[in-house]
Design goal:
With 309 residues, the chain is of the alpha/beta class. It has two domains: 4-67, Ribosomal Protein L15, Chain: K, domain 2; 91-308, CRISPR-associated endonuclease Cas1, C-terminal domain (Four Helix Bundle (Hemerythrin (Met), subunit A), Up-down Bundle). Helix content is 45%, strand content 16%. It contains eleven helices and ten strands. A hairpin with a 2-residue loop joins strand 9 and strand 10. The longest helix has 25 residues, at 103-127. The radius of gyration is 19 Å and the shape is globular. The relative contact order is 0.13.
Length: 309
């Protein structure tokens, strides 16, 4: 399902449930109703402001629909996420298979994800008119489990090629870094929903191993889609957007609806993430042997935009 990403970015708002709708209300003065959205149309809710309040009924209704509520810090990074404890009807079976997955299988799958990420990074660089051969050349060096950490080697080259030699990726930074943070938060929320909907546990990862990270599998599976966010930030920066603003937020959210090339044809990023999570679940239970990963290509909307410049 392709739903809406709802961000609450203004302070002093109250969110509650009314007849199947999420309702947003101003908490100042006359407590005016500001808007309402059908719950069934929502993919994720991003809480990115101060002084917000929520009714328990709303939180229950979101959880029942596998709709994550994401809590953001001042730097636009996600610091918390509400997810359901029940989901796919095959959840118990898939949890068991996920836990029982062998290390060689997890290593093979992680190598496939790293290769896909490098290919997407190379495609992003090509779209941006930057040298892309250095990233594409790293793909064949990735071994099972990526023991040589080719992913990190690629990242060091990639950032300087995309944003210039002076750029440093800093999650606490402002400007481009803050825009990347926000885009990744939106992508992470959509991927988390895909993971839960596929009947997988978001903490049981292929590769990420941070003991304090409850979303390790989510962070694994969102890797091939990060370059779509990166390229959108590059495009926004090129157009004069250098900070997180309402306009840049909307543009970054819309990235989830941009099309990617897949073996089955053109598919929106959000659906690609769902297909990837579902294919992983199918691999775990023996119904499939390969991940459904996107093919490397320039986003169609960006190609059209560059042609019109």
């Amino acid at each position: 399902m392709i739903g809406r990403i709802v961000e609450v970015a203004d302070d002093k708002r109250h969110l509650f449930l009314s007849r199947g709708f999420l309702v947003v209300q101003d908490t100042d003065g006359e407590r005016k109703e500001l808007g309402q959205i059908p719950l069934d149309d929502i993919t994720a809710v991003i809480a990115n402001a101060h002084g917000l309040s929520y009714t328990n009924n709303l939180l229950v209704a979101l959880a029942e629909r596998n709709t994550p509520l994401v809590i953001c810090a001042a730097n636009h990074n996600a610091v918390g996420m509400l997810l359901p404890i029940e989901g796919n009807f095959q959840q118990a079976k898939r949890f068991d298979a996920q836990i029982a997955a062998s290390q060689p299988l997890r290593k093979r799958l992680w190598a496939d994800i790293v290769k896909s990420k490098l290919q997407q990074q190379a495609a992003a660089l090509e779209a941006a008119g930057a040298p892309h051969i250095p990233l594409a050349a790293l793909v064949r060096k990735v071994k099972s489990g990526d023991p040589d950490n080719i992913e990190a080697q690629g990242a060091r080259r990639y950032w300087s090629l995309l944003f210039g030699s002076e750029f440093r990726r800093d999650q606490q930074g402002y400007g481009i870094n803050a825009m990347l943070n926000y885009g990744y938060t939106v992508l992470r929320a959509a991927t988390a929903r895909a993971v839960v909907a596929a009947g997988l546990h978001p903490t049981l990862s292929l590769h990420h191993s941070n003991a304090g990270n409850a979303m390790r599998l989510v962070d694994d599976l969102m890797e091939p889609f990060r370059p779509m966010i990166d390229l959108k930030v590059w495009q926004l920066n090129r157009q004069g957007e250098h900070q997180v603003t309402p306009d840049s937020k909307r543009a970054l959210v819309r990235t989830l609806y941009d099309d990617m090339q897949t073996s089955m044809g053109v598919t929106p990023v959000m659906v690609c993430a769902q297909n990837l999570a579902t294919s992983l679940a199918q691999i775990y239970i023996g119904e499939k042997d390969k991940l459904d990963l996107p093919l490397p290509s320039m986003p169609l909307d960006l190609a059209a935009a560059l042609q019109n410049e």
